[in-house]
Write a structure and sequence with these properties.
Blueprint (H helix, E strand, L loop, with lengths): L5 E5 L3 H12 L3 E6 L10 E4 L1 H9 L3 H7 L1 E2 L2 E6 L5 E6 L3 H5 L4 E4 H11 L4 E4 L3 E6 L4 E5 L4 E4 L1 E4 L6 H7 L5 E13 L12 E6 L2 E8 L4 E9 L10 E3 L2 H6 L5 H4 L5 E11 L11 E3 L2 H4 L8 H18 L4 H30 L4 H17 L14 H4 L3 H4 L2
Parallel strand pairs: 1-2, 1-12, 2-8, 5-14, 12-19
Antiparallel strand pairs: 3-7, 4-7, 5-6, 9-10, 10-11, 13-16, 13-18, 14-15, 15-16, 17-18
Helix pairs in contact: 1-5, 1-10, 2-10, 10-11
Length: about 400
């Protein structure tokens, strides 16, 4: 009997752990190397779209996800100044339409679910990768402490500032979008009771938009605000700022939104950068996964979803061709790159429409959203979502990999 493939994963975030779990299920020997002293995620929310729920179903953790997530009935799109409802997409229908609900979850909760499901994976924390070399018959990862790990395959799941990607293909050239983001997390019971926080809500206005939705069984409200500005250019999710920044930026917006901002006791800001899709993901026996391969803007909510799908597919391809791992990596890239590229480009297009400044352009967009929500149109029959994302949500990676 041939030995199980040995796979080293650089990065212990959601994508890395999803890949490790998928590989475990397929019988691989798996090592996860994480530079932080513990497995941890930032204190932010995550929109788990139906395709991501189905990918987590394939990993066997859907019931655990349901126990900590929120299943919102609507996505409400509201006007920035009047508060008028532009569109109300009925998410309660998603399970019937797309085969899974749309959930919202705290990132740390999802990471804990994935980590808790791992049985045989060797998790090594406090191990910072400095380079990866993809060879003809294996790959090697080298770390800051002087150690190295040789494996049949090394997978870079180390995010937008990927050491693995830089080692294989050189430094990327991200472009500043001209957009600054703020995020906060409020206790639900701190928010005024007359404000709707049980649904997902998106406020759209000139040069910006704000999204908020419940996480952790409705105990917390995740808030993310985007605004066109070049006043900050650091790409970091952990830079704290004062609540006065979003309060001042959105001072003229509707009070159902602005009254929420002070309810979060901590605020963070970062500059949003865009990256072109890579032409190739692999070199020798080293490859990429998730944001390392296809970092995308957040406007379709697909960053984590694509990473989880990647993990399911790479595990299936390795299991299918354990004696030809080069072919397995080629098939992985062939299956995943077109879909990931479409998500990258779709997110880029969505960014422009979200921040229209012209009143006439906003009116045309809002009418289009309302008509789509009521009558559908375009894409698969029944895809009456404002952003026409049925092509994303209908996909079931678990079924595809059977």
């Amino acid at each position: 009997m041939p030995r199980a493939p040995r796979v080293a994963i650089i990065g212990g975030g959601i994508g890395g752990l999803a890949a490790a779990l998928a590989l475990e299920h397929r019988g691989a020997e798996t090592i996860v190397c994480e530079q932080a002293p513990t497995l941890s995620e930032i204190g932010a929310g995550l929109n788990v779209t139906p395709n991501a729920v189905k990918a987590l179903r394939a990993l066997g953790v859907e019931s655990k996800l349901n126990a900590v997530a929120c299943d919102t009935n609507f996505l409400n799109i509201r006007s920035w100044d009047s508060g008028r409802y532009i569109s109300r997409t009925r998410r309660s229908d998603f399970k019937e339409k797309f085969g899974a609900p749309n959930l919202s979850v705290h990132r740390a909760d999802l990471l804990a679910i994935l980590a808790g499901a791992l049985k045989s994976t060797d998790i090594r924390t406090g191990l910072r990768a400095v380079s990866v070399e993809g060879r003809a018959g294996n790959a090697v990862a080298r770390f800051a402490d002087g150690s190295e790990i040789e494996a049949d395959i090394v997978v870079g799941a180390d995010g937008i500032h990927s050491v693995v990607r830089n080692s294989l293909f050189g430094a990327d050239v991200p472009r500043f979008t001209g957009c600054i983001c703020w995020r906060g997390m409020a206790a639900a019971d701190a928010v005024p009771r007359d404000i709707n926080i049980v649904d997902g809500t998106m406020w759209m206005g000139p040069h910006g938009h704000v999204v908020h939705y419940p996480v952790r069984r409705g105990e917390l409200l995740n808030i993310v605000a985007h605004f066109d500005s070049d006043g900050w250019t650091e790409e970091s999710w952990t830079r704290e700022c004062d609540v006065s920044e979003p309060v001042t930026t959105y001072a003229a917006w509707h009070t159902d939104l602005t009254r929420i901002f002070p309810c979060s006791t901590r605020w963070y800001k970062w500059a949003l950068y865009d990256r072109d899709p890579l032409e190739h993901w692999s070199k020798g026996r080293a490859t990429l996964l998730g944001d390392s391969a296809h970092a995308m803007l957040p406007y379709l909510g697909q960053g984590a979803a694509m990473a989880i799908e990647d993990g399911v597919v790479i595990a299936a391809m390795i299991a299918k061709q354990p004696n030809d791992l080069d072919a397995a990596l080629q098939d992985y890239e062939r299956l995943r790159a077109p879909r990931a590229k479409a998500a990258v480009l779709g997110s880029r297009a969505r960014a422009k429409e979200n921040h229209l400044a012209s009143r006439w352009a906003q009116l045309r967009r809002n009418v289009k959203f309302a008509l789509r929500e009521r009558f559908g149109g375009g894409g698969k029959k029944g895809d009456n979502t404002a952003f026409q994302v049925g092509w994303l949500y209908n996909y079931d990676v678990g079924t595809e990999m059977e």
